[in-house]
Amino acid sequence: MKQKSREIRALLAALRERHYHFVTPTPATHARVLANRKKRYAVDLRDVFGWSLPFAPEAIDAALLTTLRDNNLLDEEGGRFRSRVRVSTLDDDLFAHSAFPTTQNDAVFFGPDSYRFVRFLQQTLPALLPRKRLVDIGAGSGVGAITAARVTQARAILTDINPLALSFAYANWSEAAPGEADFVECSGLSGVTGDVDLIIANPPYIADPDHRAYRDGGGMHGGELSFTWAHQAARRLERGGAFLLYTGSAIVNGEDKLKAALFDALSGFDITYREIDPDVFGEELEREDYADVDRIAVVGLVAVKR
Ligand SMILES: C[S@@+](CC[C@H](N)C(=O)[O-])C[C@H]1O[C@@H](n2cnc3c(N)ncnc32)[C@H](O)[C@@H]1O
Q1: What are 91-113's pLDDT values in tens digits?
Q2: What is the C-alpha end-to-end distance of the chain, expressed in Å?
Q3: Tens digits of per-residue pLDDT, 44-89?
Q4: Per mean pLDDT, which range of 37-41, 131-135, 272-276 is the poorest?
């Protein structure tokens, strides 16, 4: 984990020096933008590290090319290069994640959900202070843990089932430097020991036929993993402990079944639950297994144990 993360940090430092900025859109928007521009090769840093376009060696400065080469971050395709890593900005931070398209099973996620997750945490955490030890389940790039650690000053534990995600998270965390953290490769909370008083999560919430770890939320139209993590959080937290879940819920015939399941899993908690966005990833509804779904809503749940 540490070797890979050293390589990624070298790139983040080089991009910070060059005042790089890029906000990552959804995969569907990304594909449309590339199609609209009919651009085949990168001409600037945003093309290389944001739009993941192939590039000729002269498209970037020699020092940056050396950083990419020395740190094993390049693929070569017919005399052109392609960065294996994408980099996005959120406020003053840089986040490394996987290049587009994220077709591999171990792709490291960062996208519009990450931006919304961060805003959800920033809005809800100030009312829950103080906190001593937090867990970000399925931390991915580490963006949620970094945000929560800054707001709460709590020690963080970042878990993920994908070891590559933990390498990226370690690099992003080290660059952002919000405090002390542990990185645990495990499913859910299974590898976390000791007391925790805050659990946050942005789980996969799509029923993904390709079963990619960053995307596939399992049964219940992708809601199963959210339910499982809520169950685990309910068992782990003591009185006053808080669980913050940002997730997607497939609304079927006007009914939010995930909401009912989460309230059930979190009996004994004071809960607030609201829709953050009524309609995301509408293109998923073209699939047969979503035929009975009205819409996918993004929801935010805050649960505090009584
Ligand atoms: C939608 S991504 C969110 C990443 C990050 N929290 C964010 O907000 O950008 C979901 C993450 O959960 C991880 N994941 C999937 N199944 C998991 C499991 N059973 N246990 C722990 N992590 C898991 C994935 O590898 C991925 O990094």
Answers
A1: 999 999 999 999 898 999 999 99
A2: 38
A3: 999 999 999 999 999 999 999 999 999 989 999 788 999 999 999 9
A4: 37-41
Ligand 1 binding site (Cβ under 6 Å of any ligand atom): 109-110, 113-114, 117, 137-141, 143-144, 159-162, 165, 187-188, 202-204, 213-214
The 3-state secondary structure of the chain, one letter per residue: CHHHHHHHHHHHHHHHHCCCCCCCCCHHHHHHHHHHHCCCCCCCHHHHHCCCCCECHHHCCHHHHHHHHHCCCEEEECCEEEECEEEEEECCEEEEEECCCCCCCCCCCCCHHHHHHHHHHHHHHHHHCCCCEEEEECCCCCHHHHHHHHHHCCEEEEEECCHHHHHHHHHHHHHHCCCCEEEEECCCCCCCCCCCCEEEECCCCECCCCCCCCCECCHHHHCHHHHHHHHHHHHHCCCCCEEEEEEEEEEECCEEHHHHHHHHHCCCEEEEEEEEECCCCHHHHHCHHHCCEEEEEEEEEEEEEC
Whole-angstrom distance, CA of residue 244 vs CA of residue 130:
15
Domain 112-305 is in which class?
Answer: alpha beta
Query: Which residue is closest in CA terms to ligand 1's atom 4?
Result: 140
Q: Whose CA is nearest to atom 23 of ligand 1?
A: 138
Pairing mode of beta strands 181-185, 155-160: parallel
> Residue 188 CA: which ligand 1 atom is closest?
20
Distance 136 CA to ligand 1 centre (A): 9
The domains of the chain are located at 2-98, 112-305
Contact 118, 95 (CB under 8 A): no
